[in-house]
Write a structure and sequence with these properties.
Mean pLDDT: 96
Low-confidence stretches: none
Largest sheet: 9 strands, parallel
Radius of gyration: 20 Å
Order of helices and strands: EHEHEEHEHHEHEHEHEHHHHHH
CATH class of the largest domain: Alpha Beta
CATH topology of the largest domain: TIM Barrel
Helix content: 40-55%
Strand order of the largest sheet: 3-2-1-9-8-7-6-5-4
Structural class: alpha/beta
CATH superfamily of the largest domain: Aldolase class I
C-alpha cells in the first residue's frame, strides 16, 4: 500500500477535544484533526465553547486545524486573527456543510451558488493570510445543485494559494447519500493547481484501494470522518499497523471518552446523550449484540449504561 496521510474530518458535537485527545493518544496514525466548525458573528469571533475546544492547552501534541464557517470575510478574518494569536498557522474554510439552516444563510455549500461573492470573499481572506503568514485550506463540495459547477469552481480556486483543497465529491442535495461522484475528483487531479485531499465514503481498506481504479492511483492524502467512527481501527489498518479491529483499544477509547465526559458534564443523561451518539456509529462493530445495544440506547442512569456496555464487550475484549 502507498504511504498515506490521514486527516480526521470534523463531526459537530462528536469530535471535540475530549474525543480527539482520546483517539490520538490511543490510536494515533492521524496526521491532522479538523475542529467542528467555528461560526463567527459580529464582534464575536468565537463563542466560549468554541474557544475552549481550540484552546492549545486542550489539544497538546495534536496537529489541529480549526475550521471556520462563514460567508463574511470580515468575520472569517477576525476569527483567523484570534486563532493566529493562539498559535495556529493554518485554518480551514468550510464550503461543504449541506445543512439547510447553514445553506439558507449562504454559508457552507450554500456559498458555492454565489461565485462572484465567493471570489470577493477569497480575495479578502487570502490578502489577510499573506499579511499574517496564515495558511488557508478549503473543504468543498462539487457545487450546490449541479456537479458540473465544479469545473468553474476549480478555476476560481486556482487563483488562490490554497494550502490544500479538500474535495468531497457530492453536491449539496446529495447530502451524504449515494456514491461520491469520483469522476469529478479525477477532473480535479488533472486541472487543480492546488494540493488535493480526497474525502468521501472510505470505510474500509478496500474502499481506499478501489480509489486507484477511479483515479489511476490511490490518493496519498485522504480525509475520513464517519469511517473512523464506524471503525476506530481504520487508520491503523490503512497505515499497515493492524489488520483487524482492535477491541482492546476500542474499550480504552470508550472508557477514556466516557470518564472525561463525566468530569465536565452532568447529570447522567447529558453524558449518556454524548455516548449514545457515538454508539450510533460503534454499534456496527458488534453484530449479535443488538439486544444489549438497544438496552444501552435506552439507559438513563450510569449503572444501566455501564452494565449494557460490559455485556456487549465481555465476549470480545
Amino acid at each position: 500500500m502507498n504511504e498515506i496521510k490521514i486527516y480526521f474530518a470534523p463531526l459537530e458535537g462528536i469530535t471535540s477535544y475530549i474525543f480527539r485527545n482520546a483517539f490520538y493518544g490511543i490510536y494515533g496514525h492521524v496526521d491532522k484533526f479538523f475542529t467542528p466548525f467555528i461560526s463567527p458573528a459580529e464582534k464575536c469571533p468565537m463563542t466560549p465553547r468554541e474557544r475552549k475546544d481550540v484552546c492549545p492547552e486542550n489539544n497538546k501534541g495534536i496537529n489541529l486545524v480549526p475550521q471556520i464557517l462563514t460567508c463574511r470575510s470580515g468575520h472569517f478574518i477576525e476569527a483567523a486573527k484570534e486563532l493566529h494569536d493562539m498559535g495556529y498557522s493554518e485554518v480551514n474554510l468550510n464550503l461543504g456543510c449541506p445543512s439547510g439552516t447553514v445553506c439558507a444563510k449562504g454559508k457552507g455549500a450554500g456559498f458555492l451558488q454565489e461565485t462572484l461573492d465567493l471570489q470577493k470573499f477569497l480575495d479578502d481572506i487570502f490578502s489577510y493570510a499573506a499579511s499574517d503568514n496564515m495558511k488557508i485550506s478549503v473543504k468543498t463540495r462539487l457545487g450546490y445543485s449541479d456537479p458540473d459547477e465544479f469545473c468553474d469552481l476549480v478555476e476560481v480556486f486556482n487563483r488562490y494559494p490554497i494550502s490544500e483543497l479538500i474535495v468531497h465529491p457530492r453536491i449539496r442535495s446529495d447530502f451524504y447519500k449515494g456514491e461520491p461522484r469520483k469522476e469529478y475528483f479525477a477532473y480535479a487531479l488533472e486541472h487543480s493547481k492546488n494540493p488535493l485531499v480526497y474525502n468521501g465514503n472510505i470505510y474500509t481498506v478496500k474502499d481506499y484501494e478501489e480509489l486507484s481504479g477511479a483515479f489511476g492511483t490511490s490518493p496519498d492524502t485522504v480525509m475520513i470522518g464517519r469511517g473512523l467512527l464506524f471503525d476506530p481501527s481504520l487508520a491503523d489498518k490503512l497505515t499497515g499497523f493492524a489488520s483487524e479491529t482492535d477491541y482492546a483499544k476500542f474499550r480504552q477509547l470508550h472508557d477514556t471518552v466516557y470518564h472525561e465526559y463525566r468530569k465536565i458534564l452532568s447529570p447522567d443523561i447529558n453524558v449518556l446523550y454524548k455516548m449514545k451518539e457515538l454508539w450510533s456509529y460503534w454499534q456496527n462493530l458488534f453484530e449479535g449484540s443488538e439486544r444489549d445495544i438497544k438496552r444501552l440506547l435506552k439507559a438513563k442512569k450510569y449503572a444501566e449504561y455501564e452494565d449494557a456496555v460490559n455485556r456487549i464487550l465481555e465476549n470480545i475484549v
